[in-house]
Amino acid sequence: MQMQQQYGNAYVQRLLGQAPGLVQRQPLPDVAGQPLAAITLDDPASVMVNGLIHVETELLPAGEKPGQFPGYQERLQAYALAWSQNNICAVVTDQEGRYHALKTDWPGRSSQVSAQIEPFVHPYARLSWVNLPGKQELFSENGNSWAERVDRVQGWYQSWQLKAVPNSFKTNFPGQNFQEHLQREFVSLLAGALDISPSLIYVAQKEGDRDPTALITFDLWMSDAQGMGGIKGALPSDETTEVKEPTVAIGPRAFNRDSYKYILGTVIHETQHFSHATIGNELLLRWRKSGSRLSFEKWLRNELGRRRISREEFDLVLEMIHDDEDASETLSYLEAFLAIYHRLPVSGNANRFHELDTMVEYWIRAGHEINDSSIRRLAAYYRVLDEEHRQDFAEHARQAQGAADELNKLFWDRVVKEVL
Ligand SMILES: [Zn+2]
User: Fold this and answer.
1) How many Cβ atoms are within 10 Å of 189's Cβ, its own excluded?
2) What predicted TM-score, i.e. pTM, was given to this entire model?
């Protein structure tokens, strides 16, 4: 309990020292075109290919401009942007301790060849790579593919739920602790899917156990959801209730044998909740620090009127105070869909519209601002899809429009009219 208390204080100190609106900060200058590293690819014909990795662009939240973005408070937010890309990305820390995601001009992941990277001298305090080529090796172990490994670990997981140890495990791993081995295998798959070191993943020791200092938590006991992000319960709206630190956790149900990309979708979804909770905490602390006589809710309304927060931020924080979730769920399902749909094959997987279809029931109650902004985001996304995905998306939207009940039809009518 003492630890918890201290930890909460450290978190509040960090937020207070970093939150926009409380501290003036320097944005990262526009870094497009800057060389980041030398890369050597070991291609299948054993020809070494050398080149330079340049920054193609800084990955920015909607509405931000290059050279003006002061960075993310939390590294997980920068990682989530990097995970949604196909290219090699770098997550960097600027001199002020804020996080940025840089997309490079080199394709990542898709290539089977392994890569060696020599970073140049750079002005960042820290730099880590995501989506490096050759990472498929991480998925296959002793000749087993991603699908085979997921099948095996899901089989073990079912036995674990029944408190049994499968004979195949006893034969292949004599004397080993079954539960620990099961957790290690899930963590290995998760680290491979996210292209991060397993050491960044905290392994929950019991249901709901979280470590906010880890990038992400794996919780073997999470049985009712694929993942959980943000904070459980309402955001406080008083002067004294302790500010809780948000986390992201993933459970066994997030592992889909068809593709590692589904886990990316789940992680990106949960990271949105995490970001929203961070915004809520930042605004709560700003209100507490302001010494305003207005209630938190009235102060938020005032800030909105003075355009110091956006309508979207206002809607999100207001629903957090009331422990609702429609705005946050809408944006979370939307981001997950936008991050992975174009990277999935259009045939042979029934799950490719799962995020979008699930979003609809929340969208209806998410308020005008988020209703409109999500339709605009979908329209912009549709314009840059390849022909195959565009046709697939259009077909799905028309079918869904035809099959929708009166409420859902509100959404699909707008998609057909404003997106296609
Ligand atoms: Zn959610």
Assistant:
1) 23
2) 0.90
Å from CA of 39 to ligand 1 middle: 38
Provide the pLDDT for residue 39.
84
User: Which residue reads 């450290």 in tokens?
Assistant: 10
Which tens digit of pLDDT belongs to each residue from 158-169?
A: 999 999 999 989
- Round to whole Å and give the CA distance between 265 and 246: 19
Q: What is the pLDDT at residue 94?
A: 87
Region of 384 please: left (phi>0), alpha (psi -120 to 50) or beta.
alpha
Interval between CA 278 and ligand 1 midpoint (Å) = 15
What is the structure's pLDDT at 97? 84
What contacts 298, CB < 8 A, 6 or more positions away?
Answer: none
| SS3 label, residue 106 | strand
310 Cα to the center of ligand 1, angstroms: 22
Instruction: Give the per-residue pLDDT at 415.
Output: 97
Q: How many angstroms separate the first and last alpha carbons of the chain?
A: 54
**What pLDDT is recorded for position 123?**
76
For ligand 1, the distance from its centroid to the CA atom of residue 208, given in whole angstroms, is 16
Taking the centre of ligand 1 as the mean of its atom positions, its distance from the CA of residue 296, in whole angstroms, is 25
Q: What is the pLDDT of residue 298?
A: 97
| Number of residues written out for the chain | 420
Q: How far is the CA of 315 from the centre of ligand 1 (A)?
A: 16
Query: Which residues does the chain have with pLDDT short of 50?
Result: 1-7, 137
Å from CA of 316 to ligand 1 middle: 13
Q: How many Å lie between the centroid of ligand 1 and the Cα of residue 283?
A: 21
Report the separation in Å between the CA atom of 94 and the middle of ligand 1, taken as the mean of its atom positions: 30
Ligand 1 centre and the CA of 329: distance in Å?
5
- The CA distance from 56 to 240, in Å, is 45
